[in-house]
Amino acid sequence: MSVDWGNLLVLSGPSGVGKGSVIAELLRRRPDIxxxxxxxxRAPRPGEVPGVSYDFVDRAxxxxxxxxxxxxxxxxxxxxxxGTRAQPVADRLAAGTPVLLEIDLAGAxxxxxxxxxxxxxxxxxxxxxxLRRRLADRGTESPQATDARLARAEQELAAQPEFDSVVxxxxxxxxxxxxxxxxxxxxx
Length: 188
Ligand code: 5GP
Description:
Distance between the termini: 21 Å
Bound molecules: guanosine-5'-monophosphate
Number of strands: 9
Number of helices: 7
Strand order of the largest sheet: 2-7-1-8-9
Mean pLDDT: 93
Strand content: 15-25%
Number of domains: 1
CATH superfamily: P-loop containing nucleotide triphosphate hydrolases
Largest sheet: 5 strands, parallel
């Protein structure tokens, strides 16, 4: 079966920018889109559901999947490993389903090297100060982990020009609408 990688949207952006909220709005508007469930060695946060938010695995299991070439991409982020399983993505695309990946910069680069036909969008905060405020307000991470995420965020912000498009997440409905417009423009 042929796989149309043009039907793949890769969304990246710094931790705290609001990717989760924008994606929730996107999926509400377009239930036909399939959001890939990533695999991670991070511990679940309160409220996260295994198999829905992430597949939570230990490092040994993650290494086993890497060794078996089971990931489309994977990366380390703030001390934890995150990866996208290759097969479910290829299966959905082969069936004509639009697929959304929410992954970090390192992962987006790996997908771009393999599949430059995909659409790569960076979700940016209205300002660096606003990002700091959102991350601190979230309160899901220890101060050290928040610092690690902020440091990583600065690297990610610098990489915006590598993406096909940048969408600023000022208002969630507006950001979701812009993303859909970009995607439909690309596919239409
Ligand atoms: P969080 O721990 O906040 O859920 O995610 C931390 C970072 O990991 C976010 O930037 C998120 O986009 C990224 N991430 C989540 N899943 C994946 C994945 O499968 N691959 C990669 N490379 N990054 C991921």
